[in-house]
Amino acid sequence: MPARVLSIAGSDSGGGAGIQADIKAITALGGYATTAITALTAQNTLGVAGILPVPPDFVRQQIRCVLDDLGTDAIKTGMLGGCAEIRTIAEEIARYRKHVSNLPVVVDPVMVAKGGAALLQNEAVSTMQAVLFPQASVLTPNLPEAECLTGLNIDSVGAMRTAAQMLRNQTGATVLLKGGHLSGHILVDVLCDSAGFTEFTDTRVQTRHTHGTGCTLASALATLLAQGHAMQDAVAKARQYVREAILQAPGLGQGAGPLWHAHTVVAQQ
Predict the structure, then answer these.
(1) pTM score
(2) How many CB atoms lie within 10 A of CB 14?
(3) Please, are residues 70 and 34 in contact by the beta-carbon 8 Å criterion?
(4) How far is CA 111 from the centre of its chain?
(5) Contact at 8 Å (CB) between 109 and 8?
(6) Rounded distance, CA 103 to CA 100, Å?
(7) From the CA atom positions of the chain, what is the Rg in Å?
(8) Which of 42, 66, 88, 134 could cross-link 50 (Cys pair, CB 3.0–4.6 Å)?
(9) Where does the chain show beta strands of DSSP type E?
(10) Which H or E run contains 70?
(11) Are the C-beta atoms of 9 and 85 separated by less than 8 Å?
């Protein structure tokens, strides 16, 4: 039976990020994707034109319908919306975890779209920290998100380590802090877990086709963890999958273009 991964996130009409990216990544890596959609967006590679939130009660109904029948081996959260939606999602994850031990929960604290549109209401950040982060096995913030969550100015790998440790101390979760917003030819991601720090480095791919990289990485990580990979191995394979998806990007759109999720470099190993 394939590993089941529930993605709780917003829909991207352009297909590059959100639920659409999650389904593609989970499927490419051999998992079975289920979803609970938190918001509809009208967007393309140039930006977000509109957001239509899904009522919290319907978000809850989606999650319960999936978990009570199909179940899941991992949960990934992305764009969530407001305080009520976040509380609902946290409640449903906690409810399921009472019956399923060691469930990987990957929380991608999505706050701003690639084009700059706000995807998380300001007042919802503290709610997310208070009720959702305690449910997380892994947090996957990028640097702007980590700066918002810690109040730190993160301008170096050393500062990344400090921020990752702070977030781990605050939440108890493993933290994968993504360093793509730092300048330079070398890209560094910092993993902070019970074993300490692990740095993952690679050369930066010079391209505009990076829309949905955060969603894709978090979904890939959730899938690999659901399949039983150890944390460091799962991170390494998820990063490799995303890198290849960037390298094989189809070149669509006039702005931040989408990745090519359908490659199977990692899935075939």
Answers:
(1) 0.95
(2) 25
(3) yes
(4) 11
(5) no
(6) 6
(7) 17
(8) 42
(9) 4-12, 32-44, 47-53, 74-77, 105-107, 138-139, 174-177, 186-193, 196-203
(10) none
(11) no
Active site residues: 178, 210, 212-215
Per-residue pLDDT of the chain (269 residues; tens, 9 = 90+): 999 999 999 999 999 999 999 999 999 999 999 999 999 999 999 999 999 999 999 999 999 999 999 999 999 999 998 999 999 999 999 999 998 989 999 999 998 666 556 667 678 899 999 999 999 999 999 999 999 999 999 999 999 999 999 999 999 999 999 998 898 899 999 999 999 999 999 999 999 999 999 999 999 999 999 999 999 999 999 999 999 999 999 999 999 999 999 996 544 44
Give the C-alpha distances (Å, rounded to integers) separating 200 from 106, 157, 187: 18, 11, 8
Instruction: Record the tokens describing residue 200, joined without a space.
Output: 């993952």
Token duo for residue 167: 């977030």
**Environment class of residue 68 by beta-carbon count within 10 Å: exposed (0-12), middle (13-18) or buried (19+)?**
exposed
Block residue for tokens 């998820």 = 238
